[in-house]
Design a protein that fits this description.
mainly alpha; 2 helices; elongated
Amino acid sequence: MEPLPAFADPDGTDFEPVSVWERASGNVEEYLRVFGRPEQLSARRENRPYVADVAEATT
């Protein structure tokens, strides 16, 4: 992401651009901190994919 030209000085800006990933990367950790199950947390720590078991619906 970059500043809009209307908000940047003619000489540019002193700030480095921030990527969308830099803004969103902390969201995963925050989500897992609040809602994560033990299997999800260990998969994240071990850098491996995690797919939850799908329970069969009974209605």
